[in-house]
C-alpha cells in the first residue's frame, strides 16, 4: 500500500523560484523502540499539531562563495544539538545536490522554524531533514519521490543518531498511523475511538546513550538481545491487532507492558516513571515512554472524556507541557 504523505509537493508550474519551502510534522512511537533497529516491527503515529517549516534560498550577493550553507534555527535548542543537526543537514544538502545532478552548489541560507521540542523522541531531527528536502526540491524545481526523500532524510539521521532504523524518517511524513519494519511501511487499520496524551518530561532524551546502554547489556548477557527483540515484537503485534480490532484496554495494557520492558533495560528515568504512574492513576488505559529513552516524553492512551483529567494529573506530576492527539486512520476519520 502506498503511504500518504503530508509534506508539500513540488510546484506544478515549474517556475524558477528564489525561495523553497518545505514542511513536516512530529511523530510518536506507540511500540517498537530499539527493537526496530534489530528488525522487529514498530508502530508509529503522526503528531500533526507539532510542525517544522524550512525555507531555503540562494542570495545573489554576499557570503563566502559557492557551496557555503548557513543555518538559522528558531527556538532555543542547545548549542551541541544545533551543531549535530546542522552537520547532518549539510551532508543531506550535499547528497541532494549529487542525487539531483546539480552541477553547481550555490551558497544557501536555510531557516528552520521548528515547533517540535528537540530531544524528546518526537522526531524533530527527521522532521527538520524532511522539511529541508522538500524546500530544496521546490527551490530547484525538482521532483523527489518518497523513496528519495527517505534516503536523504536517513543521510542526516544516521549522522545524528548513529544507526537509524528509519521509522522517524517515514513517520514525520505520514498522514496515518503506520507499521514500520525493515524500511517498509503500511498504514494501520484503526478500530477504536481514543486519544493519545503526550507529556513532555522537560528532560532531553539521549538516544545515542540509550542505544549504547542497550547494546552493552546485550553483550554482557547471552541471549539478552534475542529475548528483548522477541518480547518487543510480540507486544507490538498484539498491540497492532488490538488497535485494528477496537480493543483499547488490550492496546493500553500492551503499551504499559512495553514500558516495563524498556524500564527493565535501564532506558527509563524516575521522572518518566512518575509520569507513567500518574497517567495510569488518572485513568489512562496504558502509558509508556516514547522514543529513545533516558528522558523525553510519555505517551498515554486515554478515553476522550478522561483526557482533560489525565492532562491535569500529568502536569501535577511534573510534565512541562502536554498535547492530545486523536487517533486517525487512513481515511482521516477520527478513531
UniProtKB/TrEMBL annotation:
GO terms for molecular function: ATP binding; mevalonate kinase activity. Pathway: Isoprenoid biosynthesis; isopentenyl diphosphate biosynthesis via mevalonate pathway; isopentenyl diphosphate from (R)-mevalonate: step 1/3. GO terms for biological process: isopentenyl diphosphate biosynthetic process, mevalonate pathway. Its EC number is 2.7.1.36. Residues 100-169 form the GHMP kinase N-terminal domain. Residues 242-318 form the GHMP kinase C-terminal domain. The keyword Ribosomal protein does not apply. InterPro entries: GHMP_kinase_C_dom, GHMP_kinase_C_sf, GHMP_kinase_N_dom, GHMP_knse_ATP-bd_CS, Mev_gal_kin, Ribosomal_Su5_D2-typ_SF, Ribsml_uS5_D2-typ_fold_subgr. It comes from the Bacteria. It holds the Pfam family GHMP_kinases_C. The keyword Lipid biosynthesis applies. GO terms for cellular component: cytosol. Keywords: ATP-binding, Cytoplasm, Kinase, Lipid biosynthesis, Lipid metabolism, Magnesium, Nucleotide-binding, Transferase. It is found in: Cytoplasm. PROSITE patterns: GHMP_KINASES_ATP. It is an enzyme of class 2 (transferase). Belongs to the GHMP kinase family. Mevalonate kinase subfamily. This is mevalonate kinase.
Amino acid at each position: 500500500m502506498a503511504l500518504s504523505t503530508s509534506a508539500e509537493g513540488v510546484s506544478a508550474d515549474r517556475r524558477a523560484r528564489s525561495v523553497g519551502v518545505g514542511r513536516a510534522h512530529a511523530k510518536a512511537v506507540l511500540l517498537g523502540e530499539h527493537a526496530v533497529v534489530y528488525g522487529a516491527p514498530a508502530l508509529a503515529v503522526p503528531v500533526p499539531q507539532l510542525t517544522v517549516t524550512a525555507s531555503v534560498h540562494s542570495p545573489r550577493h554576499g557570503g563566502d562563495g559557492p557551496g557555503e550553507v548557513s543555518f538559522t534555527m528558531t527556538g532555543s535548542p542547545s548549542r551541541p544539538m544545533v551543531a549535530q543537526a546542522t552537520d547532518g543537514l549539510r551532508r543531506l544538502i550535499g547528497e541532494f545536490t549529487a542525487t539531483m545532478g546539480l552541477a553547481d552548489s550555490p551558497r544557501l541560507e536555510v531557516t528552520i522554524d521548528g515547533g517540535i521540542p528537540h530531544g524528546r523522541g518526537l522526531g524533530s531531527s527527521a522532521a527538520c531533514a524532511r522539511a529541508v528536502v522538500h524546500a530544496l526540491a521546490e527551490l530547484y524545481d525538482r521532483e523527489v519521490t518518497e523513496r528519495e526523500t527517505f534516503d536523504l532524510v536517513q543521510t542526516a539521521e544516521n549522522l545524528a543518531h548513529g544507526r537509524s532504523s528509519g521509522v522517524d524518517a517515514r513517520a514525520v511524513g505520514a498522514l496515518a498511523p503506520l507499521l514500520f519494519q525493515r524500511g517498509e511501511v503500511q498504514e494501520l487499520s484503526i478500530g477504536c475511538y481514543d486519544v493519545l496524551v503526550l507529556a513532555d518530561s522537560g528532560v532531553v532524551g539521549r538516544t545515542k546513550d540509550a542505544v549504547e546502554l542497550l547494546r552493552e547489556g546485550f553483550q554482557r548477557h547471552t541471549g539478552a538481545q534475542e529475548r528483548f527483540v522477541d518480547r518487543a515484537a510480540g507486544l507490538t503485534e498484539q498491540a497492532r491487532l488490538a488497535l485494528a480490532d477496537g480493543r483499547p484496554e488490550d492496546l493500553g495494557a500492551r503499551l504499559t507492558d512495553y514500558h516495563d520492558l524498556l524500564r527493565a533495560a535501564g532506558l527509563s528515568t524516575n521522572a518518566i516513571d512518575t509520569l507513567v504512574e500518574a497517567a495510569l492513576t488518572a485513568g489512562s488505559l496504558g502509558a509508556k515512554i516514547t522514543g529513545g529513552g533516558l528522558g523525553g516524553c510519555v505517551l498515554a492512551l486515554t478515553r476522550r472524556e478522561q483526557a482533560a483529567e489525565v492532562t491535569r494529573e500529568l502536569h501535577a506530576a511534573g510534565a512541562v507541557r502536554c498535547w492530545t492527539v486523536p487517533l486517525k486512520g487512513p481515511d482521516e476519520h477520527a478513531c
